[in-house]
Amino acid sequence: MSLLAFIGFIIIHVSLVLIVHFQNNIRDIVLGSDRANFWLALGIAIAASGGQSG
Fold first, then answer.
1. Scanning 1, 28, 29, 52, which has its CA 20 to 30 A from the CA of 37?
2. Does the pTM of the predicted model rise above 0.85?
3. How buried is residue 41: exposed, middle or buried, by Cβ count under 10 Å (0-12/13-18/19+)?
4. Where are the domains of the chain?
5. Closest Cα partner for 39 from 25, 54, 27?
């Protein structure tokens, strides 16, 4: 039961990070500042994730 609760928490948390203030969140997560360049932060995040799906 606790594993299911943890998985549910992760799904909800990641969803909210992506939905609520996405630009500020991605800048803060990748570059450490919500005043940084959004496109740079997004490019780094995509490159770090492999840039491909599948």
1. 52
2. no
3. buried
4. 22-54
5. 27
Residue 44 near residue 30, CB atoms below 8 Å: yes
Provide the token pair at 14.
């990641």
46: nearest Cα among 32, 33, 29, 34? 29
Residue 26 near residue 45, CB atoms below 8 Å: yes
Are 38 and 23 within 8 A, CB to CB?
yes
3-class SS at 21? coil
Angstrom distance (rounded) from CA 45 to CA 49: 6
